[in-house]
Amino acid sequence: MSGGVAAAEGPLLGAGQGVTGVPGGPSTGPTAGRPTFRGLRSRRGGATLLAGLVLFALVLAASLAAPLLTPYEPSRNDLRARMHGPVWDGAHQGGWDHPLGTDALGRDLFSRILYGIRISLALAGAGLLLSLSLGVTVGLVSGLFGGWFDLALMRLVDLQLAFPYVVLAMAIVTATRTSIPVLVLLLGLAGWVYFARVVRGSVLQEMQKDYVKAAQVFGASRWRIGLRYVFPNVLPSVAVIATLQLPALIIFEATLSFLGLGIQPPTPSLGGMMLDGVQYIASAWWVITLPGAAVLLTTLGLNLVSDGLRQLLDPRLQTV
Amino acid sequence: MRRFFLRRLAQNLLMLAFIVLAVFVIMRLTAGDPARIKAPIFASEDVLDRYRAEFGTDTPLPAQLVSFLSGIVRGDFGESFRYQEPVFSLIAQRLPQTAMLALSALLLAVGVALLLGVAGARRPDGWLDRLGQAIAAFGQSAPTFWIGLMLVLVFSLGLGWFPAVGFNGPQSLVLPAIAIALAVLPADLRVIRTAMIDGLAQEYIRTARAFGIPEWRITYVYALRNAALPLVTVVGIDLGYLLGGTIVAEVVFNYPGIGQLAIDAVNARDYPLVQAITIVTAAIFVFVNLGIDLLYMVLDPRIRIEA
């Protein structure tokens, strides 16, 4: 495992700090130089991190600038321009007026994809915030206080990790019908366990350290130790899990929408667009292919960021 | 060893009981009245009451729980709204198909992960290592259903090599299994590669080399043993993804398994069927995990001694 090598490189957080805004851990030493572009690139994982950030920034910028990039409303039909192929597919009437083609109702795919990415990111982001706050709280409390509370919570975590979540989501959606709040809740409940587990582990590890013992001797309360001393040291792991969870949630949202359990039409969602496209798979390849490619680009960027961060911040997390 | 196993058994059964209870609570408290779901929209109160009596939802909640639990113990999950058939037999018909697909996907994923993981560990940053990491990044970033659709587009509609939908023989397993395997592969690959790098760095490997034992034997017999335990662990974790992925792939490929049944049930709001599928999946899960625990004991003597 590369852990030994990376740890021997000394302060790992110096460069990561400037770029990612992740607060430094205990290993930030006096030799941590100024964060420079070249410095970051030469570190193990640095190039990966940069490539991921650039890719994700491009996708994000394109989706935010959607009204500038495309003249079409995402839900506007144009029955005279149905099923046009993308611009490079001349055999299907591809042309520059619809660079990525149109769907069965003549809606412009490029604008639907851009707006779809917005919705994906917003939903996954909301889900991430929910699971992050829930998971970090549970992990902190579990690690700090231990006892039966810890035991019960960790069994709950095991339970959820063990269970195929899609099935649970199906049961919940059957019971409640689809709506945006339910969807956000489903996404939020999908990821909290990973945060809870890792935070709890880090807390237990930090509690063994001398500075915590010193704080205890000085009479600091458990809460104070937890929030003031332990919490900042847990943040790098939280950042790594977050970058790992965000793409997972994007994929999960697309999957739910594809199964008809998520975002409902006419709101453009990447999964929903592919669901529409399935019936035309034989005649219009682009309608199912391109929204998925958009998901792929978005999640690939984020996964590269997470791989890079993992290598930079905490080599031990590589096996998570 | 027996104590360890019994403790695990007890824990897992408790977990299962908890899932059953959770399903009951979620379905009863949030779905409201199954009678309203099944009855025609403008049904009168009398008709609704008749349905309620049929489902037993006219009794108080604790009594419902008791009859629900005793039904489960007897293998009676009620009757499907949509198919008018006992839910249990519907599931039993489809289960072997799903198991076959999930198992093929798992074998494929573990096989490829072993090949590429070992190659990557022997020659880090070599082309096989790069290939493995590229496949892993793709598998991690692309939704399973989309991979499935792309496979259909290329290999059934384009090249006509494999059937796109349904099940007619082993050739129908190929494309869905690839789609599912790609979702599971990244974690497997990472674990095997790490364990192999660790394994190859051990003293006894150097000793084995000094004795002139052939390199393939050192790699695949001596070092690979190191990967056995982490591999079993990761397969246990895979299981959730595997079942989830199988459900999604079944929908894409219109494959006659549990997942297909489940999504139809959700769309028809076939409440007893969804409920039963959730519980059956959970039960499978719990028992496979128990099997993995047993495998642990076989592979790792330390667990046997401690327990």
UniProtKB/TrEMBL annotation, chain A:
PROSITE patterns cross-referenced by the UniProt entry: ABC_TM1
A Pfam family recorded for this sequence: BPD_transp_1
Positions of the ABC transmembrane type-1 domain: 117-306
TM region(s), chain numbering: 47-69, 119-149, 156-174, 234-263, 283-305
Domain of life: Bacteria
GO CC terms of this entry: plasma membrane
Subcellular location: Cell membrane
Protein family: Belongs to the binding-protein-dependent transport system permease family.
Protein name, per record: Dipeptide transport system permease protein DppC
The organism of origin for this protein: uncultured Thermomicrobiales bacterium
